[in-house]
């Protein structure tokens, strides 16, 4: 049994967790980032979901800033990919013409490592969160396991960026669950392909299931079945290609399979407020940032701070796809740009709360808003960018 104490513990090393840890450490918090794999980036890297979706509204206006934009640019530091040069001039633009990039997952891992090292975050790789301790309604410690054995990490504040609201669930918090969908992305060699770079003969291919084929929520059985189902579908695809005679095992074969279950919706916290379908272009006084709908131009969302606060559980913030959303709203909050944005907001809120000696639910939203706008460079409200939602 070992024990360590921090100002901030972030569970989950996907883009939301990395952003939260960076935001906390850059403000002087002794910060630990706990990740169950040996790669940071989550679904973006281990899951081979290699498209950094748009930071703009599809009509030439950037809406998401801060670490989310920093990560987009750093994803190209050690590999190919280009930002569409004319994205500011586009109107009603398709996703591929917006402010987004396709990146190499392995290259992005290297950049995330570098960012975290530069910020002085204490990194716990190959470490699984196994439980949570709640004292007087406040999360006070998380249990972990790794090659050193079982231990406990205590902190003044926590961020749940596990993607599945694991901290909240272990703490006994009632979570929101939804019908799931399974994506399956694979890096493959395909003769004649143009993939991440010109003439590289590599491509990343993907397909999805009907959401009704995967049970709601998350469990050990769900993960096992999802991973095996995804690999089976890819195996069957290869067999069809071989039988057709178009390719054989020398001209078409996998180079890398996803190292984690690519489930899109599992569970998220039940927040002080839940973002619901139809709330695009809805203004919130406690907005912590703006997120564009990656599926269609002209739709922008304000994300309330209350969606990061698990109702009835103090001392913890949710970030990324753990934040409180349902249905169509969850489609917006679960992807890379919004996840990194809410991660940074959670990390900033944690730093301000720790400095004030309070839990995040007691933080003055005016103080948080000033930090996000004046220091992080966020736009928090539609009016900050002159957006009205008209003509979308």
Automatic annotation (TrEMBL):
Q: Does the keyword Metal-binding apply?
A: yes
Sorted alphabetically, which InterPro entries does this protein's record hold? FAD/NAD-bd_sf, HdrA-like
| Claim: Transmembrane is one of the keywords in the record | no
- List the keywords (alphabetical): 4Fe-4S, Iron, Iron-sulfur, Metal-binding, Oxidoreductase
An MF annotation (GO) of this entry: metal ion binding
Record-linked PANTHER family: COB--COM HETERODISULFIDE REDUCTASE IRON-SULFUR SUBUNIT A, FERREDOXIN:COB-COM HETERODISULFIDE REDUCTASE SUBUNIT A
What protein name is recorded for this chain? FAD dependent oxidoreductase
Q: Which organism is it from?
A: Victivallis vadensis
């Amino acid at each position: 049994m070992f024990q360590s104490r921090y100002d901030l513990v972030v569970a989950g090393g996907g883009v939301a967790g990395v952003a939260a840890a960076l935001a906390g450490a850059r403000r002087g918090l002794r910060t630990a980032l706990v990740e169950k794999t040996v790669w940071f980036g989550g679904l973006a890297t281990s899951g081979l979901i290699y498209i950094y979706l748009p930071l703009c509204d599809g009509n030439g206006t950037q809406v998401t800033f801060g670490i989310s934009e920093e990560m987009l640019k750093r994803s190209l530091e050690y590999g190919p990919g280009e930002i569409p040069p004319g994205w500011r001039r586009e109107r009603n633009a398709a996703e591929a013409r917006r402010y987004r990039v396709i990146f190499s997952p392995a290259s992005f891992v290297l950049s995330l490592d570098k960012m975290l090292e530069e910020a002085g975050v204490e990194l716990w790789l190959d470490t699984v969160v196994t439980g949570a301790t709640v004292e007087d309604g406040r999360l006070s410690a998380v249990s972990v396991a790794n090659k050193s054995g079982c231990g406990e990490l205590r902190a003044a504040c926590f961020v749940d960026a596990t993607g599945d609201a694991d901290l909240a669930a272990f703490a006994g918090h009632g979570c929101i669950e939804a019908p799931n969908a399974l994506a399956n992305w694979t890096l493959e060699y395909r003769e004649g392909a143009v993939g991440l770079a010109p003439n590289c003969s590599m491509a990343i291919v993907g397909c999805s299931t009907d959401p009704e084929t995967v049970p709601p929520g998350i469990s050990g059985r769900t993960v096992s079945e999802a991973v095996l189902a995804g690999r089976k579908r890819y195996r069957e695809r290869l067999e069809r290609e071989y039988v057709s005679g178009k390719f054989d095992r020398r001209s078409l074969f996998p180079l890398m399979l996803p190292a984690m279950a690519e489930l899109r919706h599992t569970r998220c916290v039940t927040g002080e407020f839940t973002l619901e379908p139809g709330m695009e272009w809805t203004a919130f006084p406690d907005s912590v940032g703006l997120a564009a709908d990656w599926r269609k131009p002209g739709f922008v969302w304000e994300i309330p701070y209350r969606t990061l606060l698990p109702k009835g559980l103090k001392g913890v913030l949710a970030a990324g796809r753990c934040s409180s959303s349902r249905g169509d709203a969850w489609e917006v909050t679960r992807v890379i740009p919004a996840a990194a944005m809410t991660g940074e907001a959670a990390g900033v809120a944690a730093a301000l709360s720790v400095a004030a000696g309070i839990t995040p639910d007691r933080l003055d939203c005016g103080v948080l808003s000033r930090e996000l706008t004046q220091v992080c460079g966020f736009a928090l409200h539609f009016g900050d960018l002159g957006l009205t939602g008209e003509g979308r």
